[in-house]
Amino acid sequence: MDKRELRLKMKKTLKGIDHVKKQQDENRIYRNLFSHDNWKTSDIIGVTISVGFEIDTTPIIEQAWKEAKTVVVPKCQSRDKTMTFYTLEDFNQLENSFYGLKEPNTDVTEAISPSFIQWLIVPGLIFDRRGYRIGHGGGYYDRFLAKHVLSTVSICMPEQLVESIPNDKFDLPVDFLITPDDVLFTK
């Protein structure tokens, strides 16, 4: 199966997860994330705004604000497939963008240098225990991480974790992988 087929299969699987089970698994993921040393010591957290079947990042953002952390979220530039992170202080600072995504309104948010991000939560659809991931296919995070060395983590449902996924020489694994039951150090 190629990456495109794997993405389609995983999206179908994720959409089919029972709502109650999903919420229970998400709550366990949040507990594991918030108890991690990197969470505790990081003042600036990078995270995407989730949509649809993805793990809900709203509680992550709210917990960060509650702990007086700075939250930064990406704005994608489709012309060159790059990302810029902007501070997010309120959900009203988001606007609708392409593919139904919510991104920061650059008129009311401030761009931040990637070097200030202390822990970046990297999204994905499929993960293996080595920290490799298959994302949604745009390559935004792959390009971003190739240029910026950051401490990274991904969060995933048990259904998203597989033994091995195909990876290219340019693919970079995340440092940590957090599931409802485990915190895996992948390096």
Give an overview in words:
With 187 residues, the chain is an alpha/beta fold. The protein has helices spanning 3-15, 19-35, 37-41, 58-66, 140-147; strands spanning 44-46, 70-77, 82-88, 94-96, 102-104, 111-112, 119-121, 126-128, 133-134, 152-155, 161-162, 176-178, 183-185.
Quickly describe the structure.
This protein has 187 residues and is an alpha/beta fold. Helices cover 28% and strands 25% of the residues.
Q: What's the topology here?
A:
Blueprint: H1 3-15, H2 19-35, H3 37-41, E1 44-46, H4 58-66, E2 70-77, E3 82-88, E4 94-96, E5 102-104, E6 111-112, E7 119-121, E8 126-128, E9 133-134, H5 140-147, E10 152-155, E11 161-162, E12 176-178, E13 183-185
Parallel strand pairs: 1-2, 1-7, 7-10, 8-11, 10-12
Antiparallel strand pairs: 2-3, 3-6, 4-5, 8-9, 12-13
Give the tags.
187 residues; 28% helix; three-stranded mixed β-sheet; 25% strand; alpha/beta; globular; eight-stranded mixed β-sheet
Mean pLDDT: 94
Report the count of strand segments: 13
Strand content: 15-25%
Low-confidence stretches: none
The helix content, as a percent range, equals 25-40%
Q: What is the approximate shape?
A: globular
Q: Biggest β-sheet, characterized? A: 8 strands, mixed
Q: Give the count of helical stretches.
A: 5
Radius of gyration: 16 Å
